[in-house]
Amino acid sequence: MTQSDTRYMRLALSLGRRGLGRSAPNPAVGCVIVQGARIVGRGWTQPGGRPHAETIALAQAGAAVRGATAYVTLEPCAHHGQTPPCAAALIEAGIARVVVALGDPDPRVDGGGLAMLHAAGVKVETGLCADEARADLAGFLCRVTLGRPMVTLKLASSFDGRIATASGDSQWITGAEARRHVHAMRATHDAVMIGAGTARADDPLLTVRGLGVDHQPIRVVLSRHLDLPLDSQLARTARDLPVWICHGRRAAPELVSAWSGIGAEMVEVDETQGALDPGAVLQALGARGLTRVYCEGGGSLAASLLSAGLVDELVGYTAGVAIGAEGRPSLAAMGLGRLTEAPRFDLTETRVIGSDILHRWRQRHR
Ligand code: AOF
Ligand code: ZN
């Protein structure tokens, strides 16, 4: 593989990322078709998951595809779904070589796409930029292999890790640029998730605003007893933008009907130790097709996800403000004794955003 192979695959990866947050339950795949030294087709998985990336790129390339190379971030599919398999489409179009970043673990594909190409005499190479593809497709991979969406946990805090003063004043700790970045992050996820305490305290809307983005993530709220105000912003907008409420089995039936009556989708989940079981919540969200969930707190939900090992990525925004011990901590108690029991993450990015620092971390698998 050459430097230009890497360059084309990086382009395919960046095209694929355009589909993040809007392709679920399908992966956000990217595809580039190159004839000689000319890019003749570009594609990415379309909103709702179809058409697939290859279909778009092949259509764009037209007759120029004979003998060309296709760069795809995920193994082309081998199954007859609502569309014929992409592997067959690539073969039929006369593609001579296919470079793939990562195999597709979906049991309907799982090596079948590569085998089809191979059997048809197409030159197949895999593994180029596999780590980048694994990071971009983490949500899809997580759902296929573990049955749950990946979880990105966001925390915006003071220098000393506080999210509000003792009186609850929290607007704003980070600056406008960091808050804008949060909206961009929401847009790359299928859903934004919060706990009931945050829903009550902040009365958030949880939409993507100010970026010219038309797509909105699903808004997920966890509330064991459904003790949420029916005149909140979430409730008032539930007819126009999806709101899913995860609640316990003993929530009052009249509250379940009140919320479903205003347009919310009700998701009943099991409880553990006096709270909704975070693993059961995520399995229920995975079963409904979610692959990427962006959790914006509060401290109890964040701590329970972390304790259960269910946070895949941390995104922190740290502001140069000091609040002190009486301020509200970003995480509820986690009951840790030894440091060796604490969930660990590896740093993947740091960046200055406005006057704040962004830091991203990926779960360390032990
Ligand atoms: C590709 N290119 O752009 C995507 C693929 O329900 P279907 O028929 O659309 O198939 C969904 C499966 O196809 C999905 O689980 C994954 O294995 C693959 N996604 N494959 O060749 C694409 N998005
Ligand atoms: Zn396909």
UniProtKB/TrEMBL annotation:
The prosthetic group or cofactor this protein requires is: Zn(2+)
Q: Quote the EC number.
A: 3.5.4.26, 1.1.1.193
Q: Give the organism, scientific name.
A: Aliiroseovarius sediminilitoris
Indicate which residues the UniProt annotation says bind NADP(+).
A156, W172, T198, D202, G298, G299, S300, L301, A302, A303, S304
Residue positions binding Zn(2+): H52, C77, C86
Pathway recorded for this protein: Cofactor biosynthesis; riboflavin biosynthesis; 5-amino-6-(D-ribitylamino)uracil from GTP: step 2/4; Cofactor biosynthesis; riboflavin biosynthesis; 5-amino-6-(D-ribitylamino)uracil from GTP: step 3/4
InterPro entries found in the cross-reference section:
APOBEC/CMP_deaminase_Zn-bd, CMP_dCMP_dom, Cytidine_deaminase-like, DHFR-like_dom_sf, Eubact_RibD, RibD_C, RibDG_C, Riboflavin_Biosynth_HTPR
* One Gene Ontology biological process: riboflavin biosynthetic process
Ranked from the top, the taxonomy reads:
Bacteria, Pseudomonadati, Pseudomonadota, Alphaproteobacteria, Rhodobacterales
User: What family name appears in the similarity comment?
Assistant: In the C-terminal section; belongs to the HTP reductase family.
Catalytic activity line of the entry: 5-amino-6-(5-phospho-D-ribitylamino)uracil + NADP(+) = 5-amino-6-(5-phospho-D-ribosylamino)uracil + NADPH + H(+); 2,5-diamino-6-hydroxy-4-(5-phosphoribosylamino)-pyrimidine + H2O + H(+) = 5-amino-6-(5-phospho-D-ribosylamino)uracil + NH4(+)
Boundaries of each CMP/dCMP-type deaminase domain copy?
Answer: 3-125
Residues the record lists as binding substrate: S170, R186, L206, R209, E296
Q: Do you know which Pfam families this protein is assigned to?
A: dCMP_cyt_deam_1, RibD_C
Keyword GTP-binding among UniProt keywords? no
What does the note under cofactor report?
Binds 1 zinc ion.
Q: What is this protein called?
A: Riboflavin biosynthesis protein RibD
State the SUPFAM superfamilies in the record.
Cytidine deaminase-like, Dihydrofolate reductase-like
Q: Which GO terms describe its molecular function?
A: 5-amino-6-(5-phosphoribosylamino)uracil reductase activity; diaminohydroxyphosphoribosylaminopyrimidine deaminase activity; NADP binding; zinc ion binding
Tell me the superkingdom of the source: Bacteria
So where's the catalytic machinery, residue-wise?
A: E54
| UniProt keyword annotations, A-Z | Hydrolase, Metal-binding, Multifunctional enzyme, NADP, Oxidoreductase, Riboflavin biosynthesis, Zinc
Q: Its biological function?
A: Converts 2,5-diamino-6-(ribosylamino)-4(3h)-pyrimidinone 5'-phosphate into 5-amino-6-(ribosylamino)-2,4(1h,3h)-pyrimidinedione 5'-phosphate.
